[in-house]
Amino acid sequence: MTAIEFTNQVQTLSYSLKPVALNLTRDLDDAKDLIQETLVKALQNKEKFKAGTNLKAWLYTIMRNSFINNYNKITKRSTTLDNTDQITFLNTDDRFVAQNNAVSSFALNDINQAIEHLNDEYRKPFMMYYTGYKYLEIAEHLQIPIGTVKNRIHIARKELKDKLRVYNPVV
Asked: Which NCBIfam families does the record match to this protein (predicted)?
């Protein structure tokens, strides 16, 4: 396999790496960085690829190993040693710091406001479903067909999703 053929195949397969990278990193920017690092390593080490083997699997292996290595670097960097009588490791990574309740309080207020602004015909079935009623029970209580109940709950969810779009992660 020539260098140009190898590069073309790697480029073609690069699009299939994104879902796996997102699954590993859980962040779009980190996933893009991981894909880029994977492609750079693959192109730098093309002589290590054995023609006739699965190139896609080889790229996935490079990506997984890169992710693990980066994770280990971050973990080692954020771990400090306590010099007390009993030696213990303290993890000081910012991802594990407890947050105050202000953010969740704002979110809860926004959610409650969005629910209050729903049309009454959508809010009632939605709140009944949210509190644990079954579709059939809601239909009997409101004296409407079960299909209407399902439709109204679906529309309420859709409206809430639109109103609370700022809380959706970008993926």
From this structure: sigma70-ECF (TIGR02937)
Q: Which SS3 state, helix, strand or coil, does residue 20 take?
A: helix
Same domain, 75 and 126: no
Whether the pTM exceeds 0.85: the reply is: no
Question: Where in the sequence is the domain holding 106, given as residue range(s)?
Answer: 102-167
DSSP line for 47-109: GGSPTTS-HHHHHHHHHHHHHHHHHHHHHHHTEEEE-SSS-EEEE--GGGSPP-SHHHHHHHH
In the 8-state DSSP scheme, what is residue 169? P
Average pLDDT of the residues in 127-137: 91
Residues 110, 153 within the same domain: yes
Written as one letter, the residue type at 167 is Y
Would the pLDDT of 86 be above 60? no
